[in-house]
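Here is my example:
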Amino acid sequence: MIRTPLRPLARILKARDQGQNTDAIEAENVRLRHEDDHDRDRNRAEGRLLVMGIAFFCAFLAIGARMGMLAGSVPEEPIAQASGSPIIGQRSDIVDRNGRVLAMNLDTHSLYAQIPDMIDPAKAARDLAEIFPELVEEDLFADFTGGRRFLWIRRQISPEQMQAVHDIGDPGLLFGPREMRLYPNGSVAAHILGGATYGREGVNSAEVIGVAGVEKFFDDFLRDPANEGAPLELSIDLTVQAASERVLQGGMMLMSAKGASSVLMDVHTGEIISMVSLPDFDPNDRPRVLTSGDQSDSVLFNRAVQGVYELGSVFKIFAVAQAIEIGLIEASTMIDTQGPLAWGRFRIRDFHDYGPQLSAEDVIIESSNIGTARIAMMIGADRQREFLGSLGLLVQTPVEMIEAPTGDPLLPANWSEISAMTISYGHGLSSSIVHLATAYASLLNGGYRVEPTIVRQDGPRHGPRVVSEQVSTTARDMLRATVVRGTASFGDVQGYEVGGKTGTADKPRSTGGYYDDRTIATFASVFPANDPRYVLIVTLDEPSVEALGEQRRTAGWTAVPIAAEMIRRVAPLLGLRPDVETLTPTGVTLTSN
């Protein structure tokens, strides 16, 4: 840069010659230089302001665009993830209707090996085999000295086992944090809960997923972080469930039965208070599924939901109630029971000879097949099918368990008149005891349809009316009379008015026909009969007990006593006080002092 001198020599000399002031030339030059500096600084400041303005404009433009994107997007719940692990192991608890824990997650650790980091594989294999007896030392050593780099040793270990492995001191043996599913009550409610296992696994966490029962049905709910750990509340009562299982287990052994099941249902809400299927299992150590043979022989088979059977005479109350509802008969109407009843090549017989006729009430009390079949003939096949459908007996049960769809009722291919006759006394149509409990609850609660549920409800859930209040009361009176003076006399429980109906059905052969010595014995009961609160269904598979010098297989000798003992045990747990009559002293005069 060339500086302009403040006192230019040429101008100074010329000014001196003309007598001018030379200081004015210097002042003018200073002024001009200052003006140039001012213009340069102003241009520089304007440039900086322009750059800053552009920067602010771009920033506001980006913020506005992002706000527009957020306003136009669908809101989603954020998912918390641990650093380096996309697997979420959290799972909500499952509790009973009173908040008692049925299933929960427990913090634990897994054990794995980073084989390249191991110092002494032989010693590690030997010590691990001592800590975990199910592991084989030779197999571990082969894995440790092979070409593998990573090996899962145990998916979960106890704190004591973790300390013992830590004491081995091998840097190649590592622990990973995770959660395991724990069922603190063991086998209680095993078929209801189902069980859980691990899905995706990592060294830092593992995904816990349901495999059966409500664990599988509600898997999405239990794993959803949006629930913030809220538990799944079931309708079952843990104490009632445990008592029911104990009574049924003892009864099954006493009656030499192959299996047993029971359902206790609230008649107004459809809530299942207890559901038992025996034999059972421990969901903490869930057994493997059978790969051969009859799946119904597996302990995993839920007889209450998946087992569909011809349930026998427990269906008779439906035929009589429908006939009364549509005005064909009354309870006192006499029904022809002269047998055998012939229909083509079929012959329908009674267990005993009940004479030429019985009243409709006595048809239920004495359990007459012929009398029920004649009533079914009056009703007709189409009306019978419609009525049984209104009770929920012809469709899959909507109970919230993954196994429910497999308990689909087996209906006759052609619902003919003979089908209507046999179905009226429980043959020719197979259903589960959950179906039966739902139908009894709907018939006896005043005549309103209910839906079975395993989830806790608040208050009654009455659906459409299926029979009138009067017919419902008449049906309850008939069932009560059956216990007082009929085939279910062993079902009377002092203090609780129990009503019920027995059903004994021969088991069908896989090749056709029926067994002569294998039965399904069922007792369907309601208590208290004067003000129904609960329906209890008890079923035994192939029971046999010796009584009065004979082998007894009928429900009156097998299922009924077990149901009575169950009611005796669980009714107080349900808050039902026994109705005990107060004896009035006779022949005694009370006086005061």
